[in-house]
Every structure is written in C-alpha cells, then in structure tokens.
Amino acid sequence: ENKDQKFVYDFTEGNKDLKDLLGGKGANLAEMTNLGLPVPPGFTITTEACKVYLESGSEPAALRDEVSAHLDALEQQMGKKLGQADNPLLVSVRSGAKFSMPGMMDTVLNIGLSDESVTGLATQAGDERFAWDSYRRLIQMFGKTVLGVDGELFEDALEEAKQAKGVTVDTDLEAGDLKKIVKHFKKIVSREAGRDFPQDPREQMDLAIKAVFDSWNTDRAKLYRRQERIPGDLGTAVNVCSMVFGNLGPDSGTGVAFTRDPASGHQGVYGDYLQNAQGEDVVAGIRNTVPLADLESIDKKSYDQLMTIMETLETHYKDLCDIEFTIERGQLWMLQTRVGKRTAGAAFRIATQLVDQGLIDEPEALQRVNGAQLAQLMFPRFDESAKTELLGRGIAASPGAAVGKAVFDSYTAVKWSRSGEKVILIRRETNPDDLDGMIAAEGILTSRGGKTSHAAVVARGMGKTCVCGAEELEVDTKRRRMTVNGTVIEEGDVVSIDGSTGKVYLGEVPVVPSPVVEYFEGRMHAGADDADELVQAVHRIMAYADRVRRLRVRANADNAEDALRARRFGAQGIGLCRTEHMFLGERREMVERLILADTDEERSAALEQLLPLQKKDFVELFEAMDGLPVTVRLLDPPLHEFLPDITELSVRVALAESRKDHNENDLRLLQAVHRLHEQNPMLGLRGVRLGLVIPGLFTMQVRAIAEAAAERKNAKGDPRPEIMIPLVGTVQELEIVREEADAVIAEVEAATGVDLKLTIGTMIELPRAALTAGQIAEAAQFFSFGTNDLTQTVWGFSRDDVEASFFTAYLEKGIFGVSPFETIDKDGVGSLVRSAVEAGRATRPDLKLGVCGEHGGDPESVHFFHEVGLDYVSCSPFRIPVARLEAGRAAA
Ligand code: PEP
Ligand code: MG
Fold first, then answer.
1. 588 confidence band (pLDDT: 50, 70, 90)
2. Cβ neighbourhood burial of 526 (10 Å; 0-12, 13-18, 19+)
3. Which ligand places an atom closest to the C-alpha of 851?
4. Can you say whether the dihedral through the CA atoms of 99, 103, 108, 110 is positive or negative?
C-alpha cells in the first residue's frame, strides 16, 4: 500500500480509459460527466482499494478519510447531508468491475434512510408512500446483500402483507401498510443478522462498500469469471452516487436503451421503459416494460433529450452503447453507459456500418469482431420449410437454434446435462442463481423480461440461444411444467427454440446450414442482390483480415473432399495430411498383413499392395490442392490401432479352440497383438520409430508421394508436396529417414525424368525436439509444431484421458482457466515453441514454420503464433475462416 496512492476519484476526475482503476461503470460515469451529460454527482472507490481489502482483510488505512472528504464535497454540492433528518441526501452504492459481470455483484440503493430521515424524505418529496417504500427497499437490499439475510424472508413478508390487504401489486400498498412492513423487516433483520438495522447513515455506507468488495468473491461471481475468462484478481470498484428516483409517480420512470439494435445492428430506437419504477425492476425483468419508443408520448421532452444524448454517445464512443437512465419528475438522468454487448451477427454488421459512417477504419473494424463470433455464425439454423408445431413466440434475445428436453429448474438442467441429455432451461425469469443451469442448457427460454433481462444479457454473453419474454407461456416451476394456450409441456418433453426469430416449437425441428457457411462454400455470393446483410458484412471483414494478415492459413485434411472444402474456405494449403486415415476400412487388412509379415517377401508383398492405393490418394489430394503446398505426414500411430481389440480377439480364439475350429490367422494375429501391446502406446512404437524399425514402410509412402507428384507434373499439374516425419526426438532419427527418403526420391526422379523439388521436414512435438531444434533444423527444411503431443508431453497429461478424469477439478480450482489442449499454454508449451523457432531459424534462416495441432484454429493461440513469427497455422477445414479472421486481427 503506497502512501500517496489515491483511492477515491470524483466523477469529474476520471475518464473512460481508466477502467482498470475505476471499473467500467465508474470510468464511463466519469466520461459522461465530463461530456456534460446529466449524471447524478458521485465518486468512485478504486479497484486498488478493493485489492488491498481482499489481500489484507481490511480497507486501506487512508480510505476512510478520503471517502469522508469526497462525501463532504458531495454534500456541499447537493446542499444536503447524508441521512440528514429533515432533508436527507441518499446515495446508491454499486459495484463496477473492469469487465461487466451482469447481476453478479452487489448494489444497495437508498442509503441514508433511517427512522428519522424517512420523514424528511416524505416531506422533501411530498410523498409519504414513496418515502416508506424507499425505506423498506433499503432494509430489504441491505439485509440481503450486506447482512446476509435470506432474501425470501422479506419477499414472503411482503407477499403476506399484500394478501392480508387483498391486493396483488406493490403499488397498491399505502404508506400505512409500508410502515408496518418496515417494522416487520427490521424485526427480520434483528432476528436473522443478530444485530439491528444500522440507523447511522455513514455506517450504512461503510458496510455497503465492504459488502461490494466481498461480493467479488461470491461463488457465482467466481463461476461467471471462469466462464468468461476474467482474471480473479482484478477486484471491483465501488460507485457511490447520489440517488435519483424513478418511482416518484407517473412522471418518473426508469429504462434501458441501445443506440442500435443489439441483435441486428440496425440504427433506431431500441430499449425498454418502465414508468414509476426503480432501476433494478427493469434489469430483473420483474414487471413488463413498454418499448422505448412509447416514451415519446409519455414524456416528449425527456425522450428528445435522450435521443440527442444517445447520438452524442455513439459518436463519442464510436460504437453501440447501452444506457441505463432514470427520469425523476420529468428530469432525465444518466445512470450508466458502456459499449454494449451484441449478438455475433450484429457485431459484424455494426463494424461495417461504422466504417461506412466514417467513424472507424478497417483495422479498427477488425478489432470489433472476433473468431468466436464468426464460429457462432457458422452454426446451423432451423429449417424454415420443415413442418413445425409453433407453440408461441417471445423476444429473439440471443441467436441460434437449440433443441432439447424441457427442464424447469437449474438443478435438473445440470443433472440431466451431466448424464448426456440436451436440455432447454425454461424459467419465468432467470436470476444469477440460475447461472450453472444456463451453462448446462442448450438454450434458455423465459416467459418474462425484455432484451435487457438477466436471461437475455447473460445468454448473449455466453453465446447461448435464448428466447425471453414469451408471455403466452405459463411456467409452473413447482409442478415442473408449462402451459401454452392449452397445450401442456411436461418436464422431459422436447422443445425447439429459435433465438434469431423468438419462435418456440413443440418437438424437434430439423436444422439447416447458416448463410455464412453457404457463403464460404460458394453457394451464396456476397455481391448477389439477395445476399443478406450479414453475408455482405462477413465478406467485407474477411477481406480486411486477408489484406492485413501475415500468417498463412492451411488445413488439416486427409482426403480430396476435405481439401476442396478447405480450399473454398480459404485454405492456402494442407498443413497436415494424416496418412493413417488412409489405412482404415478395407485397407486395414493389408496393414495387418504388413504387421504379421515374418519374411522380407511377405512384407514387400504387403507394401507393394499398399503402394498404388497410397499413390492414388496422393494424386487426388495434389490435384485438389494444385498449386498449393500439401504436407503429408508419414505414418504416426502405434500399430496396434490397426489390429483387432485384444479382448475381442482373445475371446474369438478361445471360442474357436473350444469348437476345435483352428484358425491359423487369428492365432498369429493374437500373437502379434500381444507382441505389440504397450503400457503407454502414445510413448511407444509410433511416429519416426515405426519408420526406423519396419523396413520399407516409410520408403513405400515416400515413393507413393514422389510418384504421385511426378504423375501430376506430367499431367501439367503443379503439385507441391512436403514430406513430414512425426515424433522426432533427435536429429539422428531424422537423418536416417531422410537418407532413405532422398534415395527413393532420386530413384523416382531418374525413372520419370521429372524434377520433383520435394522438401522434407519434421514435426516438433516432443520437448527434446524443441530443446534441440537448432540441431534438428540441420536435417529439416521445415518444422510443424504438433502442439497436441507437445502439450501432452510437456505437461505429462494424457490427451485422451485428462478431460474425463481431473480437468474439471483443475478448472474449478482455477489451476488453469481453459484446457491447455484448447488454448496454447503460453508460459510452458508456448515458451518451448518460441525458443525452437529462434534456434531453428538460427541454423536455417529460410526454415518454414507452422503449427498443425488443434491450437491452430483457436483464436487466442493464433495471436500467439503470429507473435512468435510462425509462417502459417493449420486447422480443421471448418475453423479456417476463424483462423483467417484472427490472423488478420493479430496483424491489424
Ligand atoms: C499433434 O500432435 O499436435 C499433431 C498434430 O499430431 P496428432 O494430433 O495426429 O498426434
Ligand atoms: Mg502428434
């Protein structure tokens, strides 16, 4: 804790670039204040103060005095004191971290109210009912979030009071009723919290600040951060803001607005408004709102002012903004703004719209979208021509097509999804307690709440399909069912929801490919008159990415069909052709014969049988990829993968024996299976080791490649094969294989009279290979990092087992935020890649470098490979557009 550190900033002191320190909300409140927009005065306590608190268990020593000084200034400005008996200043205390965590952390409103000041507020507002309603809200929120009292106790008490009076909505309760409720609430607090509700306003404020700090580490906040990959040590800022009231009557209200439609990107008036209500009522989706456009007829002056402010904000932030506002007796106040979340499709559209408006340039447009969004747009959608049974319609809150069994609570959602069921979580509305159910579900369906309800905001953030506010649904959580216009849907019945149209169907609706995939496949043209806006936007963004990227993008593909698709998707070659995939099906028997061979003749015969088939494979592949490099990897997996399962075969042999039905071949097979059985096959006889111990295997493959290339050349083609040796650990292995390969190539060249210009390189997928990359580069013309095996061997994690055994525990304990098999472990595996790149290039400056592990199609990893200076990434055909986009974003 630094003595001169400043822990509190007035809203006039900050700006939007101070998100690390002031959190998103605080930084943007400051920005709006400085833009001259109507923001209620207040101040922000920094994330640094929170960090000190979380690390040491107590607030920084200087904090109290700093808060006092800022509170004094605020009181001066407002002309009233916090909790002052006759004319109280009230404040809200809200969390606000660097990254938005909707509904995850705590907020307390109306701080400063007490038995004394509640009467002051009544006089000041000229509304006794309002004052007592505000007081009961304070005790309820404070009781729940600061003192840890079970919130349902308050809700039940409120419900009882309404029933006793025979009314159904809160607004029918009068001042006298609310006074009684306050009394009751205070009793609940004393009983449950073991202390009285604090009457000292400063104590209320200090406790609320501490509670916000503490809320950083609640279970649901931790879960959300893991999901969203938000670091756990950032801490939250705390915003103390003078209260304005949206619940002072019909000329007051509160709302949420977007400067553009977060689902389509179109400009217009989008948002929800709720008359005579406080902010939390809208976000929680508790009461149904009216469309923002209706505000024009409710309060034209505020509406016009809001439209002007929205334009100011969009031009200033150069992006879609979302806004929370309150109108207090005809006076508009801005409570929050931020660059708003949006659907994947809207992100692409908005980025190109902003370019057209001259607000941003192309490199900036690339930063406004990402590969995860593009991947989402490539998901299939519902088949509109299919016969469907429409159940109802809600708001299209987060796009996608989701099919699953109906479940009505999060617990069941999690339980069923663990046992492999696809589920749709159906709720009246969701709240932060539903988070794990939402994660487990294929999609989320609610009967209440708008585009800004909890369900909608969180689902969009997770990229999950969501339909909300489907009012025809009567959700009965207790009886685990819902009724829609007379149709009863029980738990377990299949429903389909369309997050792009808001439609809800009974039963399973078939799905069709996305227009973006149709575009990449070449079946839809961006220039066509009927091409949809989304396809045009994707087309433009991809063009920007291709223009700036330095990394080339290749495909992992083993046959002509995949190769052609990869090419359509923009692949600039094949980075990995796994030849083992060519030895399956009916060819497996030939491999069997090769393995079983006792004599050189038998072995040669088997290889000779395989040669023409292999050659044909390569001819097709080189033709599909004509003019582009094709990296063919020689056989890699342990041989037992080509033999029958040991148990099955043993049973078969035993049965045959008992029938005295002697099968010589099965017996030999069984012996071979035993001979080849390994405890750790992934560390056993595989990769280059196979080539070194099975005479003729690799040379047969090299011959097939060389002859195929010669054939293509003679047919005026432009084949560009690269021969890749897997699982090399030392340069000596590579030297031996190369010598044999070079001899075969020379032979084929002599026989065909064609100059083949074949290159030979290696995979770097063992730590020793990475550590001796300088030596290995002597014998290799290229490296391709096999980050699957490299991750496996660097961590000592079996890539085939860990996900099922202990990764969940590791992820839960935060040992890593994401599996290292998914995103490259920069510090460990990545640092080996980096040093191998340097050592390899030091030996051979023109060494070609690529990666062909799964990481080649992972957005974060692509940025890393760009940064360490690889020449290309190679990934599955479907990930190619994502890799192109991310390579562009990395370079822009
Ligand atoms: C790798 O290990 O990263 C790789 C691409 O090879 P495979 O996945 O076939 O082992
Ligand atoms: Mg490998």
1. confident
2. middle
3. 1
4. positive
C-beta separation of 250 from 275 below 8 A: yes
Q: Which of 70, 184, 454, 863 is catalytic?
A: 454
Chosen domain end from 342, 362, 392: 342
> Which of 238, 235, 240 has its CA nearest to residue 109?
240
* CATH number of the domain encompassing residue 320: 3.30.470.20
Q: Within a domain: residue 652? A: no
Say if residue 582's pLDDT is above 90: no
Q: At residue 379, does pLDDT exceed 90?
A: no
* Same domain (yes/no): 501, 567: no
For residue 875, how far is its CA from the centre of ligand 2 (angstroms)? 13
Any binding-site annotation on 633?
Answer: yes
Task: Describe the crossing of helices 151-165 and 128-141 by its angle, rounded to 10 degrees.
Answer: 150
Which residue of the set 50, 466, 468, 852 is catalytic? 852
Last residue of a domain, one of 320, 342, 364: 342
Say whether both 296 and 440 belong to one domain: no
Structure tokens at 149: 């009292």
What total of structural domains would you count in the chain?
4
CATH number of the domain bearing residue 412:
3.50.30.10
Catalytic residue flag (residue 454): yes
At a CB cut-off of 8 Å and minimum separation 6, what does 650 contact?
670
User: Ligand 1 pocket, 852 CB below 6 A?
Assistant: yes
The domain of 259 spans 253-342
The label of the residue with tokens 């608190």 reads: 53
580 Cβ closer than 6 Å to some ligand 1 atom: no
**DSSP strand pairing (107-111 vs 91-97):** antiparallel
Residue 617 near ligand 1, beta carbon < 6 Å: no
Same domain, 178 and 31: yes
Binding site annotation covers 787? Answer: yes
Of the two residues 457 and 7, the one the predictor is more confident about is 7
Is there a single domain that holds both residue 563 and residue 688?
yes
